[in-house]
Design brief:
The protein is α/β, with parallel strands linked by helices. It has a single domain (5-245), classed as Alpha-Beta Barrel (TIM Barrel). The chain contains eight helices and seven strands. The strands form two sheets. It has a five-stranded parallel β-sheet. Strand 6 (179-184), helix 7 and strand 7 (215-217) form a beta-alpha-beta unit.
Length: 249
């Protein structure tokens, strides 16, 4: 289809670190090499197995989440993946917004220091459609700044920007100095170009800021009827055409 890399959600059964033997890890690494694919990023999937909420009021859950993130970071290192996504978590009823923020910040800082030794960058993603702690570009930038670690950057998903009725290209310009990764999806997790999103403006903005990272498609999981091959092929076909039109190789 023409993809350079693949993003891996670290849920079961695909890549939950605790379920991957050393042999299986090597098998997957060889499979990636055989197909000429890099691992663009890895996502410690919330809800993919035990609870993984870094802002949980439960100390035990926060500790497990940090353990899980470190396992994902080590797996990313083994598979030569440069990026792990930080989903800041969600505020549980009865926990103050500030306490939840501080819990997430503490976890992010600890994981970032661990990741730095392995050459991995953590990116904070605003996820308003799925959580209630980091919802905007400014939220993500603030958490990344407060972490105080050079390997903490930011990313965004066009789907979440659409969810807030915001303009994704605005996110590009707002985040440009720390923008390290991006998810592309039209409304309702459709392939870009199949909804009403303005992806020409998004790609033009990325070109203008000199973005060098991956354009990762996070599409298709809004329905059980999705055909993964069609979603992947349709997404890259459309975006390659837009890139040619704006002169972005």
């Amino acid at each position: 289809m023409g993809y350079d890399g693949i993003e891996i959600g670290c849920a079961s059964p695909h890549a939950w670190p605790d379920y991957l033997s050393p042999q299986r890890r090597l098998e997957i690494k060889r499979l990636l090499a055989d197909h000429g694919l890099k691992v663009a990023a890895m996502l410690p999937a919330p809800g993919g197995g035990p609870g993984v909420n870094p802002s949980s009021p439960l100390k035990e859950e926060r500790q497990f989440t940090i353990h899980h993130y470190k396992e994902v970071i080590r797996l990313a290192h083994e598979w030569e993946c440069p990026t792990v996504i930080w989903v800041a978590g969600w505020v549980v009823f009865g926990t103050s917004q500030q306490d939840a923020w501080n819990y997430s910040l503490q976890g992010l800082t600890e994981c970032a220091r661990y990741a730095r030794e392995l050459g991995v960058t953590l990116v904070v993603e605003p996820t308003p459609a799925d959580s209630n702690l980091v919802e905007t570009a400014d939220d993500a930038l603030l958490l990344a700044e407060q972490a105080g670690e050079t390997n903490v950057k930011v990313m965004f998903d066009t789907f979440h920007a659409f969810y807030r009725n915001e303009v994704p290209s605005d996110y590009v310009y707002r985040m440009k100095d720390k923008l390290h990764h991006i998810h592309l999806s039209d409304v309702d997790r459709l392939p870009p170009g199949r909804g009403n999103g303005n992806f020409t403006a998004v790609l033009q903005a990325l070109k203008e800021i000199g973005y060098k990272g991956y354009l990762s498609m996070e599409v298709g999981f809004h329905t059980r009827k999705a055909d993964p091959d069609w979603y992947a092929a349709e997404s890259i076909r459309y975006l390659k055409r837009i890139m040619r039109e704006i002169g972005w190789d």
